[in-house]
């Protein structure tokens, strides 16, 4: 047995103890939960152990899982067929685990934050990830956005009661994906992933430049594959643009109502410049006719006193 293989066996011992053997009994009775821990062990091996010794082989998740299955006392009694079957069932199960994340919009709601995976041919997507066991939907979204972008949406004051949070939910294959929609993210926000070798790029993208499902079909027909890089984004763009249009109409209505209220208040009052006061020839208003007074600051006139009379 070579020295490198001995070192690999030693590391497998360490990983079995660190990630599998000490699991609670109820998780050890679930093949899916064991496989999730095997996946965590593989990430740890690639991110932290291999950099210490470049002679250690890089192992795909499947190759790593089969080695762990054979090495770990809890699973070594399984046959090779059972090892392969367990891994295949785990991959199928992973595609059904719900995904939660967020759509981060700038203040004008015409740009979104997208993240790109680590691998060379990785696609772009909204920051999101699989929900953990017993984790709440919104908590998962907060965690995943922070892990992939370094942006804490809760600390930024963007998280409300979950019932008041807008989200878009779409089934993709057998997987349920829910993305919470958050607006007014400062354009100068600094993004930096908190996970290793998972996110390679974080960028703002203009909504108008992203391929929708309809545009994707047209691009594929012409033989271009650019839309494939955004296939995880495209299904959300239609509902997102409708929501943005609603928000802009609501913002406009709120602004018009505010302007209308100011004009109505001004029309019912008598405006007098505070610096000038009342001239000596003008009669002073009777004390009992004054309802109340307050100051209004205007870009054109510094201070005005509004006197409302009964």
From TrEMBL:
Nudix hydrolase domain residues: 95-232
Molecular function terms, GO-annotated: 5'-(N(7)-methylguanosine 5'-triphospho)-[mRNA] hydrolase activity; manganese ion binding; RNA binding
Keyword Nucleotide-binding belongs to the record: no
Gene Ontology terms: biological process: deadenylation-dependent decapping of nuclear-transcribed mRNA; nuclear-transcribed mRNA catabolic process, nonsense-mediated decay
SMART domains assigned to the protein according to its UniProt record, in alphabetical order: DCP2
Cellular location(s): Cytoplasm
Domain of life (superkingdom): Eukaryota
Keywords per UniProt: Cytoplasm, Hydrolase, Manganese, Metal-binding, RNA-binding
One GO cellular component term: P-body
Family: Belongs to the Nudix hydrolase family. DCP2 subfamily.
Protein's name in the database: mRNA decapping complex subunit Dcp2
């Amino acid at each position: 047995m070579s020295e490198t293989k001995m070192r690999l066996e030693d590391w497998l011992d360490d990983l079995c103890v660190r990630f599998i053997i000490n699991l609670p009994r109820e998780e050890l009775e679930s093949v899916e939960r064991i496989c999730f821990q095997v996946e965590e062990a593989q990430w740890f091996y690639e991110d932290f152990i291999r950099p210490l010794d470049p002679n250690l082989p890089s192992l795909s998740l499947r190759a790593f899982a089969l080695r762990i299955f054979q090495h770990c006392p809890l699973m070594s009694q399984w046959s090779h067929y059972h090892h392969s079957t367990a891994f295949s069932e785990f991959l199928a199960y992973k595609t059904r685990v719900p995904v939660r994340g967020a759509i981060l919009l700038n203040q004008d709601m015409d740009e979104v934050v997208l993240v790109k995976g680590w691998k060379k041919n990785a696609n772009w997507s909204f920051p999101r990830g699989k929900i953990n066991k017993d984790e709440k939907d919104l908590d998962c979204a907060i965690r995943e956005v922070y892990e992939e972008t370094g942006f804490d949406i809760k600390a930024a004051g963007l998280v409300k009661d979950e019932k008041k949070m807008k989200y878009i939910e779409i089934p993709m294959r057998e997987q349920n994906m829910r993305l919470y929609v958050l607006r007014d993210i400062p354009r100068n926000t600094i993004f930096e992933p908190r996970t290793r070798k998972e996110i390679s790029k974080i960028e703002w993208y203009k909504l108008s430049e992203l391929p929708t499902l309809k545009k994707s079909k047209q691009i594929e027909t012409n033989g271009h594959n650019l839309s494939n890089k955004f296939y995880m984004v495209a299904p959300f763009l239609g509902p997102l643009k409708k929501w943005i249009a609603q928000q802009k109409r609501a913002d406009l209505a709120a602004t018009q109502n505010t302007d209308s209220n100011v004009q109505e208040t001004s029309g019912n009052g008598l405006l007098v410049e505070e610096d000038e006061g009342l001239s000596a020839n003008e009669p002073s208003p009777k004390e009992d006719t004054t309802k109340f007074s307050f100051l209004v600051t205007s870009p054109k006139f510094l201070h005005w006193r509004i006197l409302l009379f009964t």
